[in-house]
Amino acid sequence: MAAAREIKAREMIDAGDDDAVEVAKRHLVQPWPYAGSVGAEARALIGEGDGIYITDASGKRLIDGPAGMWCINVGHRREELARVMYDQAMALSYNTPWYTMNAPSAELARRIADAAPGDLSHTFFTTGGSSAVETALRFMQFYNNVRGRPEKKLILSRGGAYHGSTYLSASLNGRPRDRDWMDGADELVVKLSSPNPFRRPQGMSVPAFTDFLVDQFRDTVARVGADRIGAFVGEPVQASGGVVVPPDGYLKRIREICRENDILYVSDEVVTGFGRLGHVFASGDVFGIDPDMITFAKGVTSGYFPLGGVIISERLLEELRRSNHPDALFGHGLTYTSHPIGCAVALKNLDLLEDGVLQHAREIAPYFQARLKTLEELPLVGEVRGVGLMACVECVADRESKDPLQLDKDVGKRIDAHCHELGLLVRPLINMCVMSPPLIISREQVDDMVAILREGISRTMDDLRKEGVWRG
């Protein structure tokens, strides 16, 4: 029976993609589905990847514009990472983290501590970004319970944020539509404004907007009570919210308010960590802050194996060790915590990053941003913004009102469809296109990417005019 199933699987792969599409429609539940198509849809089938490229079911070669999901940092088909997976699986495929450990996880924790800012010294490994944020929040709750402050549990988050899909992490999300039909721990979360300069009140300068954000944060702490707020969780750059780069100095000022009020600052670097901004971590090297915890995932293995984690301040751990509750149990763990294969892959991935990929990312980032910025010449484009090798092209119906195409919320999907036809995969987000290619992208490949995106937007403008949706 097993042999028959294996033959059938091989036949599906060899026979082409029609079988896979039909099987998916019958048996596969896709992430983020709509009720009208849940369990009955198939999405674009990808056959293989190589460098910055992927190949779809028809054999079309596409630039992987989103690098998978912000994660294929060193590119597809890196033999070094594949060999590490094989070698580690043959040596030790798994060990229970409840009463044993493995060497790759210990070594990876040491190297992460070496790269982290401030006194961040210890890592708890998870399976991805959602479980990393969930772990950070549960640790905050445990920390305050042990310290005799059971009421200090509220979490500050922001509009436009995305922190995961587990119950607590998803409760922090502030993007449109994420929570329309989903429940969350709303009683634990206090929402603040998004730090998006493009969407600041009309007539307000960027420095004044920064002051507004900081004042709002300080006023919220005073109104809610610092004795009730356990943590602030924030992405250095709001990634899935549209690559929102905060105003200069904003994060430092928020960090200072957190320190003054004994509020744990959790920097969510699931996207920005491991090279996306040219450094292992962006919190210290790019934004000059030293959080109490940093969450990470995605680029830590360049997407080759599911792995994430949270790095914790030595100060917090020392306070727990000195408490008068030495028997208090942090009752939290995952079957795949500190997975030996994932940690081994992450170690080799870190080697690749430090052996030239990070430097290349820093060198090519200004060119990447400048070339994308030229798309603001197109009347449909309201703003191109970004930092490092992550950027967002935001489309608007009218530049004065910054109307995000109220008549056509799926303009990003239209652009993506045209770009797919032309050889580029785009990450469409309602009226935005997000670009975060593998860090190994060359100048010539950046030129190709921007040229295709320009043509895709131009074709979309033509479509919108013909349909009477937009005049331009």
UniProtKB/TrEMBL annotation:
GO molecular function: transaminase activity
UniProt keyword terms in alphabetical order: Aminotransferase, Pyridoxal phosphate, Transferase
Cofactor annotation: pyridoxal 5'-phosphate
Pfam families: Aminotran_3
Domain of life: Bacteria
Database matches in PROSITE patterns: AA_TRANSFER_CLASS_3
PANTHER family: AMINOTRANSFERASE, AMINOTRANSFERASE CLASS-III
Family statement: Belongs to the class-III pyridoxal-phosphate-dependent aminotransferase family.
Protein name per Swiss-Prot or TrEMBL: Adenosylmethionine-8-amino-7-oxononanoate aminotransferase
